[in-house]
Amino acid sequence: MHICLSNGWGGLEMYPSRIIPELRRQGWEAHGLALAGSRVAESLEAAGITPLTVASRGRALLGLGRLLAYLKANEIRVLHCHKSSDLRLGALLVTLRPSLRLFFTDHMGVTRPKKDPYHRWAYGRVTRVFSISEATRARNVAAFPLPAERIQRLYLGIDPAPYAPRFSHDERAAMREALGLSEGAVAIGLAGRLTPGKGQRGWVEALAWLAEHRPELAWHGVLVGGLSAAEGSNEAFVEELRARIHALGLEGRIGFAGFRRDLPRLFEALDIVCVPSRNEAFGLTVIEAMAAGKAVVGSDSGAIPELVDAETGRLATPDDPAAWGEALAELAGDEALRRRLGEAARRRVQAHFTLERHVEGLVAVYADALS
């Protein structure tokens, strides 16, 4: 049973519904516990399971008897939490039924020590913590009250098939036109929530550097992400970005694509994908762009250097617009280099970052714990 009692919607909340079809394909029966009416619950339904729902975390704690009865009736022996706030529930269930095995994936990257008596009790019931990168694991080992051998790096993965190119020449041209891209312009995209931590501010400054120092290059920037709070953005930050783009005289060269559900097809219209966030715990957008065969420029911090190397893209310091501008200039001026990096990036995802590979690693640990 995957437990995610969150009303939010991001990579953490999407994770259970993303892996459940692959869990089922590999022979495991999956269940879910979510908040009633949440997008997590809706996504589990869409993935083909009817989740058990509760009105709140408090209601879940008050309904331990109901949860234990459900676990027994469905012969569930593995619990997997995805928010640290859900560990209290998981630890209580394991305390009441010691035959259960409890797992926790740290999707965010812990930022402060968790070694007080409560966390020692809760994490003491966890069979294994999964860290989604080596960078995250290093922080987990330092922060969690667990021996290092109970904290395992397990990279996330995606199904690369949807990212394979599908557009005809005319379809790609139509998508580029809809994005406001002129013919022959190198499309430089950044996909993600429009919030300060994702690095859009520095990216705009890098494009300003590019315009000033390499005026001969034809390019167009595309910001992909919701523009309203309902779509996960910081609306004040969106307005700040608009104002800065106007002040730099780049309104005709940087556009806002808004929230998109067709990211694999959008990647087909782009030539370079940027991920300038300072401290990614993993970087799903990175491997999605790589699976689409795109050259990636990413931050040289967090987990991104574990995904991107000189054979598949370029790395630059997040707060250095000149370094970013130089990397973008190199790729914007060399179509053959972009193609070579993109092809190597696609192969790297297929070899190391598939959803199938991720779930194989996950269920191997489940099976070992149960045996």
From TrEMBL:
CDD domains found in the cross-reference section: GT4_PimA-like (cd03801)
Keywords tagged on the record: Glycosyltransferase, Transferase
Keyword Transferase attached: yes
Keyword Zinc: no
Stretches assigned to coiled coil: none
GO terms of molecular function: glycosyltransferase activity
Domain Glycosyl transferase family intervals: 173-348
Source species, domain of life: Bacteria
All residue ranges annotated as the Glycosyltransferase subfamily 4-like N-terminal domain in the record: 9-160
BP-aspect Gene Ontology terms: carbohydrate derivative metabolic process
Record's protein name: Glycosyl transferase family 1
